[in-house]
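Reopening: Glyoxylase, beta-lactamase superfamily II still failing for me.
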Amino acid sequence: MENITALGGDVYEIDTRMAGFSGITAGYLILSDRPCLVETGTSTSAPVVRDALHHLGVGPDDLATVVVTHIHLDHAGGVGDIARYFPSADIVVHEKGARHLADPSRLMASARMVWGDRLDTLFGELSPTEASRIRALGDTGAVDLGNGRTLASHYSPGHAKHHVGLIDSSTGDLYVGDAAGVYLPQTGDLRPVTPPPDFDLDTALNSIALFQALAPERLLFSHYGPVQEVEDILERSAEELKIWVDLTRQAKSEGMDLDHAVAMVRDRTRGRYTALQADDETAEQFELLSGAPSNVAGILHWLDRVAP
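Support: Ran it again with your exact input. Result attached.
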């Protein structure tokens, strides 16, 4: 199947084809003794992911675990559907996100407020998962991949208060979710993801420092794909956060409303990203994943809390 890429170490990247796009959201299958899916993608992606797992020999009762880095709909929107397709799998999530997988009503209502009618085409509807199948992680935890291999969980809020990073004891792969930003392999661009209401700069920088301390062999981005230049990318991730915060703080100090702040930050950062000088489709893809309005709104929300 053309949406499956073998990454070595029994790890397979699955393009979950969010909203029909390629190269936007990745799920990862660890085909160990106890097969584990990291990230489900959206609800509308669930059949794509199911078919990829079946193609890789993982039948309905073979999947042991589904782990999500956090409960945003581009990462976990398909959890309820995947749980139904693979009835033997445990569903693993940080304890701050667990109740929203069991009862997604509040999460879906707030997503509807943000996205409006676009919600249905971009994400679909997160279906509930039986509470008995959900395993909640604390600040650290581990998923048994079989044969002595584990996927260790490390609490990494900043992007979202229910976010974890996951490191594979066998490969040294670190699944970074959104805590290190969005990486675009076509152009090598990296941009932060700082949506409201949870973004907090110090917490986000501490999460990146934690990732550096874990000394991973490789970073696996949910958006998008594997990156070998671990130290360089994590340093860039911290630098990008500081630049966006500094510019947004300047806009706020000049009394700009959200629209003017977004326009200013977008204009001042445009030259940093090759994708925005590329073809329209690549630029649209980048903006969908790390939209300036959402990023600036999240930073302003944080600034209002820490420096009203």
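The radius of gyration is 18 Å. If you still see a failure, please send the error message rather than a screenshot.
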